[in-house]
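re: ur question from earlier - yeah i can do the single chain one, its not a big deal. heres the input i used so u can compare w yours
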Amino acid sequence: MKHVAFCILPNHPHVGPTLPVVSVMVRRGYRVSYATTDRFSSRVRSAGADVTAYGFDGFEVHRPDWLTQWISSQLDLISHLYERDRPDLIIYDEWGFAAYIIARHYGIPAVYTGPSYALDRRCLADQVPHETFRRGVLEFSATIDGVLANFGVFDADWLFHRASLNLYLCPRLFQPVPDSLDDSCFFAGRCAGEQPWYGNWKRATAGARPLVMVATSTNIVQGPQYFQTWVRALKDIECEVILSIGDRANPLDFQELPGNIELVQNVSHVSILPRVSLYVGCGGIISSAEAAYHGVPMVITSVGNAEIEWEAANLERVGLAVHVSDQEMRGAGLSQIVVSTLENTSMLRNVREIRRAIRKEPGAEEAVNRVETLLGW
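and the output i got, formated as tokens:
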């Protein structure tokens, strides 16, 4: 039985799309181990993998040595594990530095996976026209390479490196300048998977009015003020509204909501989106892919974050979203933006065409086929 080891950032957008891939591998008879934290251990086990738990959960990014701390924590755990239980394949993501180091040290085949875009240094200006974010990418890449050098890796060019096979668990049509990529880059499409560990949601009424869902982001978390801004904007228009406030928010911060607004927490968006007319959120490629899969137009609020500004502009380019800038969030026109987007029949037709395209994308089964072809399994 071949041993496949996953080393993935313990974060919702990173773990979630890999679980269907894990399930396919387990179904095909591979033994899968998965390094993660207690927060994700039950859902990883439900996909059929053996869990190796990190002792380190989260990033203390205010510390100057946080990246060294993260890599050291990974290495401390998996180096001992893999020495006595050597994997036949390591699958790592953009935060799986230790797995990459160990794969190189022992000569273990390794496959890269990620939930986001494939950046290419040669055409980065075309991929990322947002100058502030592009500068941040290059600075962060240099920081990572400097830290990796302390662990004996001097040639990673980390944010731009390519493995023999690179699995991107997101739609190809989201990718800016896709023709710059070679055959080592495979876009599996929407791989978010179901979320049985969350509760399901059922609409309380027959729902003649449009349903608008307002959510935050798992990476750029927004607090009560963000949601209250949308409550004020949406309370008087002809729609029903769901506020999905996130796992760690306090519901007591939301008192006396208007009658057309419902608060939900610990509920799967997969169970809500088939009924949604408009998704309002902070971008994020997994949330965006899920909305596109269900044919839901988006309003993306970038809240002054350079990365989201770039992603929102990219989703506008594709025809899936309207970008609301930080300045517009502080203005008085949010209601009209929502109404005009709901009434934009041309945009809705385009989103439905994209939905058809995304539903035809290959998914987790083909991702595993690519791995097997690469390794001759």
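Residues 66-84 form the longest helix (19 residues). not sure if urs matches, ping me
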